[in-house]
Write a structure and sequence with these properties.
Rna Polymerase Sigma Factor, Chain: A, Arc Repressor Mutant, subunit A, 2 domains, 0% strand
Length: 182
């Protein structure tokens, strides 16, 4: 949305205009749903996270200082909502510290084969929840292990371990996908 239009829609939302809220939801719900789906393992959970994200956004819209940063702000709310949802519904299991694996980890992993985005997302969604959270936060959303450890209340080593395990599983699953496509 153009900055002025977005500013006016947000102002209308703050004044209680329901059609402005629907317009904002219609514009941003599809992309935020994609983000929510990455963090969940089923559509129903993703939809619940999406709804919770928009509820929080509308309740706290008065705190948004720069309307042009609305999308970034909403994504941050959605990530936090997904983490809250995960914590509420699952218990995190602490894993061994893997500082010695640090040299084996890279900032991003590359896949030589061309895969459809849906295939990659499907593989990520099949990962155990703790691995799925960490790989989304680190590799896709760009958080550091320090930030992830704070957000998930786990050690930095546990974050690294979960990322290492997730990458290992992804490589294995991607190999299966490539074999099946031959």
């Amino acid at each position: 949305m153009e900055a002025l239009v977005l500013t006016n829609i947000i102002r209308s939302c703050l004044e209680g205009n329901e059609s402005a809220r629907r317009a904002l939801y219609a514009k941003y719900a599809p992309s935020i749903m994609g983000l929510c789906f990455r963090y969940s393992n089923c559509k129903a959970d993703a939809e619940e996270i999406l709804q919770e994200s928009f509820i929080k956004a509308f309740q706290n819209l008065h705190r948004l200082n720069d309307p042009e940063r609305f999308e970034w702000w909403l994504k941050r709310i959605a990530v936090n909502s997904a983490i809250t949802f995960y914590k509420k519904n699952r218990r995190l299991i602490h894993r061994r510290d893997v500082e010695h694996f640090e040299n084996m980890l890279t900032d991003s992993f590359s896949i030589d084969k061309k895969l459809e985005l849906d295939e990659v997302l499907t593989i990520i969604q099949r990962l155990p929840e703790k691995m799925r959270l960490v790989i989304n936060l680190y590799a896709i959303d760009g958080y550091t292990h320090e930030e992830i450890s704070t957000m998930l209340k786990i050690s930095i080593g546990t974050s690294k371990s979960n990322l290492f395990d997730a990458r290992k599983r992804l490589v294995k699953e991607l190999g299966k996908t490539e074999e099946n496509s031959k």
